[in-house]
Amino acid sequence: MATRAYARLIDLVIQAVAGGALGLLLVWVGPGLSVNLVLLVVMVFTLVVWPIGMELLLRGRSVGKAMFGLWVISADGSPVQSRQSVVRGLVALIDIYLSLGFVALLSAMFSPACQRLGDMAASTVVVRHRRRRSAENPVVFYPPAGYEAYVAGLDVTAMTAEEFSLVREFLLRVGRLSPRARSDEAVALAEAVRRRIRHELPVAVDPETWLICVASAFQWQAGGLLRDVALGVAPVMSLPGPPTIQVGR
Questions:
Q1: Where are the beta strands (DSSP E) in 114-219?
Q2: Nearest in space to 247 (alpha carbons), one of 183, 195, 204, 213
Q3: Does pTM top 0.85 for this prediction?
Q4: Less crowded by CB within 10 Å, the N or C end of the chain?
């Protein structure tokens, strides 16, 4: 949370400088413009146009976020969409600027994924890791063969977007892990998620396979990405090869 506050502070300084420069430009270009009009244009540009534009231009980042290794992604793990950036920017007028950041701080404190109201409204989460190339494209987690019905009935509503991001990152890098590290991390992460959603496995299933089931169920319930894939407008990355699956009888 502290890193987000520092990143926001840097962004506010940059916004103030950009808004001041625009104000001087307007006064120089149109000396006959009223003071109220200049102030209105500067405020809209500084508080709405600039932050939304930067997030769109930098694909989920701002200058401050980039400095601290933060970026905004959709709750289903895909890159943030334009409509989501707009929603975040508009809600920021209330939870950041109008309340002087108090509402944003309060909502982040009581949110498991540290989401402010803008993130909740836009179904986004701020991830606190350096961006990898693998995060540039959305990844769809389809149910493993034979687990389609199980995934359809798996309730993951208690799982947060941040927890899904942890599962997603693990599944994307399993190919670079040693067999021992891959197994240990899968067991630990699967147990943490299982406790989070209060789920008892009906059969003995490989932890990594179960995490794929969880990721698939979360994406189906969160929506957005899978609908885009169905329409053919979202690229899909291939995942590393799965481990040998052993299902208990």
A1: 124-127
A2: 204
A3: no
A4: C
Q: Kindly provide the residue ranges of all beta strands, DSSP E only, lying in the chain, ordered along the sequence.
A: 71-74, 124-127
pLDDT in tens, 111-147: 766 789 999 898 888 876 544 444 445 677 888 888 8
Please report whether residue 195 resides in a domain: yes
Q: Count Cβ neighbours within 10 Å for each residue of 86-123 and write b for 16 or more, e otherwise.
A: ebbbebbeebbbeeebebbbebbeebebbbbbbbbbbb
* Residue 18 Cα to chain centre, angstroms: 27
Number of independent structural domains in the chain = 2
Co-location of 64 and 141 in the same domain: no
Which amino acid, residue 215?
A
Q: Determine the Cα angle at 111 with ends 83 and 11, to 5°.
A: 55
247 located within any domain? no
Q: Do 122 and 180 share a domain, yes or no?
A: no
- pLDDT at position 241 is 46
